[in-house]
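Query form — protein Phospholipid-transporting ATPase

QUESTION: What is the three-dimensional structure of this chain?
INPUT:
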Amino acid sequence: MCARSEAVELEVLGAEGGEARVPPRPLRLSLLELLGKLVRRDQPTAPRRRTRHNHRFRTFVSCENERRIKANNREYNAQFRYANNYIKTSKYSIITFLPLNLLEQFQRLANFYFLCLLVLQLIPAISSLTPITTAIPLIGVLALTAVKDAYDDFQRHQNDSQVNHRRAKTLRNGKLVEEKWASVQVGDVIRLENDQFVAADILLLSSSEPNGLCYIETAELDGETNLKCRQCLLETAAMGQDDAQLGAFDGEIVCETPNNLLNKFDGTLSWRDQHFSLDNDKILLRGCVLRNTSWCYGVVVFAGKDTKLMQNSGKTKFKRTSIDRLLNFLIIGIVLFLLSMCVFCTVACGVWEWLVGRYFQVYLPWDTLVPAEPASGAIVIALLVFFSYAIVMNTVVPISLYVSVEVIRFAQSFLINWDEKMYYEKTGTAAKARTTTLNEELGQIQYVFSDKTGTLTQNIMTFNKCSIGGLCYGDIVDENTGETIELTDSTEPLDFSDNPEYEPEFKFFDAKLQKAVRRGDRNVYDFFRLLALCHTVMPEQKNGRLEYQAQSPDESALVSAARNFGFVFRERSPNTITIEVMGKTEVYELLCILDFNNVRKRMSVILKKDGEIRLYTKGADNVIYDRLKRSHQEEVRSKTQEHLNKFAGEGLRTLALAWRPLEERGFAEWKRRHQAAALALRDRDERLDAIYEEIETDLILIGVTAIEDKLQDGVPETIANLSMAGIKIWVLTGDKQETAINIGYSCQLLTDDMAEVFVIDGVAHDDVDRQLAKCRDSIRVVNTFLPHGPSEAKGSRSETANGGAVARPSPGRAANVKLNAPAVSVVTFRWEHNTLAHDSNEYASGGAAHAPDSHEHGDDSNGFAIVVNGHSLVHCLHPKLEEKFLDVVLHCRSVICCRVTPLQKAMVVELIKKSRKAVTLAIGDGANDVSMIKAAHIGVGISGQEGMQAVLASDYSIAQFRFLQRLLLVHGRWSYYRMCKFLRYFFYKNFAFTVCHFWFAFFCGFSAQTVFDEMFISVYNLFYTSLPVLALGVFEQDVSDATSLQFPKLYAPGHTSQLFNKTEFIKSTLHGCFTSLVLFLIPYGTYKDGLAPDGKILSDHMLLGSVVATILIIDNTTQIALDTTYWTVFNHITIWGSLVSYFVLDYFYNYVIRGPYVGSLTVALTQATFWFTAVLTMMILMVPVVSWRLAWSRRRPTLAERLRARTRWRRAAAAPAPRTPSARRARRSVRSGYAFAHQEGFGRLITSGKIMRRIPHADAALSALASLPGKFHPRSSTPPPSPPSASPSASHSASPPSPRAPKQDLDSVDL
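ANSWER: The structure tokens for Phospholipid-transporting ATPase are given below.
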């Protein structure tokens, strides 16, 4: 990858020198190469080469590869025709709507087919039917679809208008003018104020904060809610908010062209004969929100569709369901079948006219267009008959099919919108189907790709539990039983109102900790002092209220907890920290901050008070434990480790806290070497890390914190149910690896009894290749020696750094394996491939659905999971490693991709779509999820805290992730089941109706004469049979919604399209052809040469047509009654009403309007012959159908049939127990629960004073330190002995483990 990136740069340089340009690379490879540049951190940067413009770097070698902008100079910038800030996501305008929409609709094969048919019907010589029979349905379909498309596009226009009409303050001639976002152009200088969205991608010029700093929230871009810091050039920061200076700013910017790389920006600024380098730290991207910064100014670099947000949005694709694609294929087959019948009738007509017809011209004269010569005349007649039969039998592909499909989908969408069980009362948000064309696809989802922040979690960090001095706090214990009480919404939190700085939203429930604070417990005081001192939070007074600016939500939660317990962080300067302990002020001298980074996994502060120097540190438990003082606090360490395992098992984010005293002389020597390392020009980071290692040793453990990254309600249960339904769930997030893994355990995507959890974090291509090979080998070993999978094997993650090793199982894993024991007990439905006679086809023990693919078999049974970093994913998506990557991930039950860009999310979705041909669903709540939502077959947006971009781009919107299981397992499954049943019946009834003409052709000389009345042909699909099948498609249920959720395996048939496919279509059409043959031959044989008792002749064409039509309607009614499982009032009205309406309309048409078939049906109904014929025909048609269904349901009943039988036979049985018990209470883990959403660099900003509004004088700070009473009392490093009896929460911390996934009792469905 790196070599190829170098090659691209050399090719660009060669192009500048006049050499021939290389052909452009494919878009996919180009994107991969651009992403590859991000991971080339281990190579030294080549010296930059000057071009003919001495202010440009080597990267910008031609006008095609650079963007040139002059600030406040619209005339200069206009020559480059840069995109303005107008956003357009709509497809049509008033002028283009009609032609573009018709063009789109006629791209559907069926619409084009009926258009051609309509043209043929306009030719009188070949048409035996009026054109109205095709024109009205076709116009209806086009109009209905056009109205729906117009409505959808109108909503897009409204959303675009809302964004484009937002107001922005722009400098015009040195004065601020308020303009629409759409009017902002590249080169404009704009002013942003606190809590405002950034209107475009801008280069930061100045801000209200010291040294040109500003803070932004990038949740819309990468899903991270922690604040990020940006800093402008000091030279431009001097302009402040002087509108005159900023309006006169004429700097020239030369930068990269628009791209979708969120973390990369290269450019130069030329101003006042100086050249300044620009990077991503000086850029504010569209979609960010300005936080904790009063104001800032910036010059627009990218606007509108060129912004990185829009570059990552992806293109809106026309989505079609798999059933739509199958119908297109089937229509081709039906048309070929129709043409074959027409060709046969054409040949037969020519033969009949040649042999017989020419002798009957006195009775059947030939048309004037037909030559008189027999051979030529027969050929011409045969050719005309071809088109006539194409028109007569066109109903084999009825236009009403598409009308009915659109109506059913439209009605199903309203059922989703009206579902009260998907209504979120807290925000008043209901589920919404934003498209009406994809409902049945919801019942065929195989892969769900989910964002984490705001989708699985609530974006809320809460201080949940802690362990101090070997005592666990946070659980509420029943004094009578000694059991831990589950917290509910009705549980009363502690009252902190006696603290004037308490926060009403802070909740803690264990009174033991509050009592320990009040009685002055030394360990507890040290614990909260550390939380109030060891951080990089900045305090701020807003409206007389103390507020904190936290760089990460974890730090905010910890400092907030200390504040509410009486340890209030008040103020900081570059060299002091002021806190308030139980109302008394304490000032500490800040000597050094040892900043956090992803390798160290800890941060420390060194403080001095009353002559005593202390180091406070917090970090990952394994990192802190490795640095604890040897042979010290053994009992405390052991108990704390137990608590850590308990917290990790509950999915809490843990940090260990420790301290150590420092000697004055030793610290002075260390500080001297620290300053030398900080000023080093080479290997500065490595030298600083080594210096930090020296002092962060011999630590004394204080305790651990447990923060809950609050999941949305019902997330673990939803994931468990979707997994049991056979749906693979992948989490794609921009968060850090530790955070993503921690949430994976919280929501049970990852469990401690998995065989292995692989971590792919290699930076170079070879590292990733090697790690994938190790993963594949491990999977093969487990599959070979443990083919049934471990049920209780304990896997542990190994630490990985710099492309280190993947996860390894614990040494005792093999001893804990129960061979042949199922991981979970669930109801499994094997729809096919079953040879066991006893347990026929659906019940099996195990967690995996039956699937023909070996990859699908392996993942659930062996319990693997994989975590992939974003920089490693760049290589995994490269064509060279793509197959190996797929080979590994398809064997994994869970996949988590962290630190991924929006583009990478979309590429992962496209990879699975392309390689697996699987139906995918993407769900997210932020703008960073838009490209993924657009790439998937189904996009679901969550109306969350990150704006509405994901909802606007989605096909369906819900308020909470837990509603996804109801959307899929209930509405999706019902929609798929209904649509499949509708299509099977629809093709059956239309073949039964249409093919009658083919059988009649043998008895009418292949003359294209119809069996039925022309009016009957026109309204058969419109009135007589439309409403019953619509009611079937809208209201049909095989099981209730509660049963669908209780037995997720009911969802399995949609994965392999088992309810409607080519085989089912052929069965339906053959059944229809058989029905048409019986319908025609039995009445024909009865009425041929038939006489009534009074001697009247019954063998006339009109009487035969009326009899066949009546029996056809009776057969259709009986058939749909047999097909209907769930009877509603609408079903009764439509089914029996359609039968009655047939007789009413026939009499109305023939007697009132005077149709040609007047009296035919009346005569037939008065004869006993008709009734005997009808009964005989119905018996021949229905007995085989009923017998087959009864035999099949008894021999191989489906899961739905057995559940319906259980419901009928056990109505008095008690309701089943809840499926998924709480997994939060007692699951224990031996893994680390460390996760800390923090970034390196804030420590240096604090100690340098750049982040401060004012820097106090050193003497003032020292005098304040001397004047205040100290709280550091010299004490030995040995902590006081622990109390003789541990708290009840500690003594009962180990309770029986709950199941890791829902269990289901097979006896409950055993009949």
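ADDITIONAL NOTE: The radius of gyration is 38 Å.
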